[in-house]
Design a protein that fits this description.
Elements lengths: L6 H15 L3 H5 L4 H18 L6 E5 L5 H7 L4 E6 L2 H7 L8 E3 L12 E7 L7 H11 E12 L4 H8 L1 H7 L10 H10 L2 E9 L8 H14 L11 E8 L8
Parallel strand pairs: 1-2, 1-4, 2-3, 4-5
Antiparallel strand pairs: 5-7, 6-7
Helix pairs in contact: 7-8
């Protein structure tokens, strides 16, 4: 993963990207297309499924960007706090319905007390960060037994592999130089090494955000089947990551 020595440069590049795309971010990311709308809904549903009964739970969303997922969760009366490093993107997030707990902050240095949240969620955020530092911070702010739910790009997907590893393609697609993607096995190891248990990393989604409208229903009907096929499932576009913070057993004095 990226060396922490270049952190100031990475943060500056992320903020610059936010300034550059702030008026068109959801189109750049592919959330605003017809296929993108289905992709948003599927991620929201997966998060809700893992959260279950949200009554009284506190949720932190990392890298909320323009607040497209924050709004969806807030509209379901979920107590959610959202953050992003880009002040420019947060301007759009603050205009979303029912979204009011939003702040500019660095996900690698979270401005919260230990054990503050029941869940930490994020869509396409961890691949912008130093994975070790960010996982340690996530673990710190989670309550004992708290849960982490993420959707991240899959490095085993051919398009994503090329996009994340070829400089001119990164620039063409609007990625920052430090962005990456994740392999399942290595990511599971990183989570376990940083104090998470019950790690589940599932291949997720073949629907591309720029799929023509006439193909969307066809792909949606077959992708659930393809996601379970050996070998084929390894090249999905995304990974759905789920893990729990290990509870430390304290010995009696």
């Amino acid at each position: 993963m990226r060396d922490i020595k270049d952190k100031k440069e990475r943060n500056a590049l992320e903020r610059e990207q936010g300034r550059r795309i702030r008026d068109n971010a959801e189109n750049v990311w592919g959330w605003a297309t017809p296929a993108g709308a289905f992709r948003v809904n599927r991620r929201v549903n997966e998060i809700l499924k893992k959260i279950g009964d949200s009554n009284g739970v506190k949720i932190l969303e990392l890298g909320c960007g323009t607040g497209i997922f924050t709004e969806q969760l807030a509209m379901r009366n979920i107590n959610i706090t959202a953050l992003d490093i880009s002040v420019d993107l947060l301007g759009s997030a603050k205009e979303k319905q029912r979204v009011n707990k939003i702040l500019a902050a660095d996900a690698e240095f979270l401005p919260f007390k230990d054990e503050s949240f029941d869940f930490v969620v994020g869509v396409s955020i961890l691949h912008h960060l130093d994975i070790g530092r960010s996982l340690r911070e996530i673990k710190r702010v989670l309550k004992p037994g708290g849960k982490l739910i993420l959707s991240e790009p899959n490095m085993a997907n051919p398009q994503i592999f090329l996009q994340k590893n070829i400089g001119w393609l990164k620039k063409l697609t609007g990625d920052t130089p430090s962005e990456t993607a994740f392999f399942r096995g290595r990511t599971k190891c990183n989570l376990q090494k940083n104090g998470f248990r019950g790690v589940s990393i599932l291949p997720f989604e073949f629907l591309h955000p720029f799929t023509p409208v006439f193909l969307i229903d066809i792909i949606r009907r077959v992708e659930y089947f393809l996601e379970k096929l050996p070998i084929i499932k390894e090249i999905t576009g995304s990974l759905l990551i789920y893990a729990e913070k290990e509870e430390v057993t304290r010995c009696p004095r």
